[in-house]
Design brief:
It is a single chain. The protein is an alpha+beta fold and 220 residues long. The strands form two sheets. The chain has a five-stranded mixed sheet with strand order 5-4-1-6-7. A two-stranded antiparallel ribbon has the order 2-3. It has helices at 5-18, 21-28, 32-41, 45-57, 65-74, 80-90, 100-114, 178-192, 209-216; strands spanning 133-140, 147-148, 151-152, 156-162, 167-173, 198-200, 205-206. The chain contains nine helices and seven strands; from the N terminus they run H-H-H-H-H-H-H-E-E-E-E-E-H-E-E-H. Helix 1 packs antiparallel against helix 2 (21-28). It is elongated and about 100 Å long. The chain has three domains: 5-57; 65-114, no CATH class; 133-216, no CATH class. 47% of the residues lie in helices and 14% in strands.
Amino acid sequence: MTTTDRQVKIIMNELSKHGDQGRAAAKAGVCRQTAARYIHAGKLPSELKKAHLGQTRGNPFAEVWPEVEARLRQEPGVWIRFLFEDLQDRYPGRFTPGQVRTLHRHVAKWRALHGEDQGHEVFFPQQHRAGEAGQTDFTHTQSLAMTLEGQAFAPLLCHFVLPYSNWEWACRCQSESLLALKKGVQEAVFRLGRVPGMASDRQLLWSDSSSLQRRAGISA
């Protein structure tokens, strides 16, 4: 038996008089459990029905979504418009033209989570040539947990590397300054015995070896 709005109104009215849920249910002609459900909801049956319909309309493709997902897996690049028209053909009168935007949203969300781009790493390969470039950066060493004579030792290093051969050199410095960078490059090229064609750090790009020589204060 379907509970009516009138019965729920009687329950609420009786409950406001004496607060006895059992008596209110008996007065309205419903069982105690039914009365408790509507008291807890605080809404009439018609209001609860509208709320349920609103939730159902939120995703009109819920029942056919397994078919949609299977099609997306078979044809990852299928146009959503074609997908929607196919659903209209197979389910006449079920989907209206205004719902195509809803399908767009659901498909976009699915593709973001399960699309063919997932799990693929995009990278741009770099080709290095011998003697072409050197790279410099400052390196903090706290994560190495080094000690010196039993004391924590975490120097700041100016680190120089040749990307082609992975030859590297590092020297201790006091701060991330241009003076410290100059010192690091000087020591590195002195140890290397050559000047790379181009060198860079995080903030500066030295376009050629002559510019590098001037900044490092060394002669050819």
